[in-house]
Design goal:
The chain has about 325 residues and is α/β, with parallel strands linked by helices. The chain has twelve helices and twelve strands. It folds into three domains: about 110 residues, Cobalt-precorrin-4 Transmethylase, domain 1, CATH 3.40.1010; about 90 residues, Rossmann fold, CATH 3.40.50; about 80 residues, 4-hydroxy-3-methylbut-2-enyl diphosphate reductase, catalytic domain (Cobalt-precorrin-4 Transmethylase, domain 1, 3-Layer(aba) Sandwich), CATH 3.40.1010. The strands form three sheets. A five-stranded parallel sheet has the order 10-9-11-1-12. It has a four-stranded parallel sheet with strand order 3-2-4-5, sandwiched between helices. Strands 7-6-8 form a three-stranded parallel sheet. The longest helix is centred in the first third of the chain and has 17 residues.
Length: about 325
């Protein structure tokens, strides 16, 4: 190994930082236990650190005792889940990424105007479930691939499109190209639904792939955006591996690849990146680590004022 090239930007996006800060503030405000519906973000290290501080992660609100504090994860929830929380008398703290909330509002608006919504996303992904729940089931069709875009049958109604925020930018463009060809009057939102951080990280890894013999993506296997980074790299013709722990580093990565690229998903803490770089450098501490900066990010989201002030919601 001659050098390590480190992608910038990488790691936490503004939405993930926001969700983690909201959960931290909820713990400070209400004390443990705090329940969280679904993993706050898709990263085992982050989840484990909160569990050690008294956060209890659940998949269904039926697991939360009535009257308890429940945090909605960064991925968002449907109105049905919000109604269930109200019926159970739960104290809700919302950590939904504001960019996911933006897509929720688009779906609600299109639904109210009588549109049938073609939602580009992944089956069973928690973000997709929450977003699609903002319109009646008969008004939403999930599309997961170019093949489905070619074959989808739609009702006789005006059509609009929305997308999951963590998809491959290139794959979404291929799907949209098919939908626009088949349905020329398709309405699309004024801005792309795929978030800036997903786009920036995919653009960065494309450039990284051109300069490296191997790319390592640090992230959880349950993280949609981390998986997409691997896919984008492989589509560029460069081998890529998704890993989370230093123990997953293979000896041949040090010996067989002169330039190793490293990036991380939007829910991966920088400590995980540094731990894996440290393992890569074991016995080769002389190998330089260089940064490849392709964009600068300065977006932040402010937590709810009630949590910051420590007042009752």
């Amino acid at each position: 190994m001659e050098r390590i090239l480190l992608a910038s930007p990488r790691g936490f996006c503004a939405g993930v930082s926001y969700a983690i800060e909201v959960l931290n503030l909820a713990l400070e405000r209400y004390g443990a236990p705090v329940y969280t519906r679904h993993a706050i973000v898709h990263n085992e290290h982050v989840v484990r650190s909160f569990e050690q501080r008294g956060v209890i992660f659940v998949e269904e609100l039926s697991e939360v005792p009535p009257g308890s504090v429940v945090v909605f994860s960064a991925h968002g929830v449907s109105p049905q889940v919000r109604r269930e929380a109200q019926e159970r008398g739960l104290r809700v703290v919302d950590a939904t990424c504001p960019l996911v909330s933006k897509v929720h509002r688009e779906v609600e608006r299109y639904s109210a105007q009588g549109f049938h919504i073609l939602y580009i996303g992944h089956h069973r992904h928690v973000e997709a479930q929450g977003t699609m729940g903002h319109a009646p089931p008969e008004q939403v069709t999930l599309i997961t691939s170019v093949e489905e875009a070619e074959s989808v049958q739609v009702p006789d109604a005006p059509l609009s499109v929305a997308t999951q925020t963590t998809l491959s930018v290139d794959e979404v463009e291929r799907i949209l190209a098919v939908l626009r060809r088949r349905f020329p009057h398709l309405h699309t939102p004024p801005k792309e639904d795929i978030c800036y951080a997903t786009t920036n990280r995919q653009n960065a890894v494309k450039q990284l792939a051109q300069m490296c013999d191997l790319v390592l993506v640090i992230g959880s296997r349950s993280s949609s955006n981390s998986n997409r980074l691997c896919e984008v790299t492989r589509e560029a013709g460069t081998p890529a591996y998704l890993l989370l722990e230093p123990s997953e580093v293979l000896p041949e990565w040090r010996s067989d690849y002169p330039v190793v690229g490293v990036t991380s998903g939007a829910s991966t803490p920088e400590s995980s990146v540094q731990a894996i770089i440290g393992e890569l450098l074991r016995g080769q501490e002389h190998v330089p680590v260089q940064s490849l900066e392709t964009a600068r990010e300065n977006i932040t989201f402010i937590p709810p004022r009630t949590l910051i002030a420590g007042s009752e919601r």
